[in-house]
UniProtKB/TrEMBL annotation:
Organism, scientific name: Henriciella algicola
Primary location recorded for the protein, binned into one broad class: other
Subcellular location: Cell envelope
Pfam family, any one: Redoxin
Example GO biological process: cytochrome complex assembly
Protein name: Thiol:disulfide interchange protein
Record's keyword terms, sorted: Cytochrome c-type biogenesis, Disulfide bond, Redox-active center
UniProt-recorded Gene Ontology molecular function terms: disulfide oxidoreductase activity
Keyword Disulfide bond appears in the UniProt entry: yes
Length: 173
């Protein structure tokens, strides 16, 4: 009889573990797209193909909002979202920028040579500090920055059709 009493706590723990794992596998998709209202980082990033030049998103280039996608060649979800980024770049010419996060320049160039380069310009963040300044939790992530340097949309994880639509609305508005 006493042995059965030992099974009850083990069964409860196992049940809670299964429930927790299920919840982790079924995240609320809305938590991955957030309206933001904070300043873009002041940090300037060297350009991939012209390291003597820099780009800063605190004062975004161009006349309207811009999208900044933080990506890396070693990131599988970055490959998966590349087509969506290319579509956005075609729809919003001059508004789509990239930031290579903790990636070797040669690897970034090979990645873009293989998949195509949809970005207007690409900054490099070899130490990862710039990504942290943005509020990055893991690549890929996409930020839409208003013309006055405010982050107005933050997309965690890879872009898909629905998330790309939200980015397009922010870029167009």
């Amino acid at each position: 009889m006493k042995r059965w009493l030992l099974v009850i706590p083990v069964a409860l723990l196992l049940g809670l573990g299964v429930l927790g794992a299920y919840q982790l596998m079924q995240p609320d998709d809305e938590s991955f797209v957030a309206k933001a209202d904070r300043s873009a980082p002041e940090r300037a990033f060297p350009l991939l193909d012209a390291p003597e030049q820099e780009i800063s998103f605190a004062t975004p280039p161009g006349d309207g909002p811009v999208m900044v996608n933080l990506f890396a060649s070693w990131c599988a979800p970055c490959r998966a979202e590349h087509g969506d980024i290319t579509s956005l770049a075609e729809e919003f010419p001059g508004q789509v920028y990239g930031l290579a996060y903790k990636d070797a320049p040669e690897a970034t160039r090979a990645f873009l040579e293989e998949l195509g380069n949809p970005f207007e310009q690409i900054g490099v963040d070899p130490s990862g500090q710039g990504g942290l300044d943005f509020g990055l939790t893991g690549v890929p992530e996409t930020f839409v920055i208003s013309e006055d340097g405010q982050i107005i949309l933050h997309v965690r994880g890879p872009l898909d059709v629905e998330r790309s639509q939200q980015v397009a609305e922010a870029l167009g508005g």
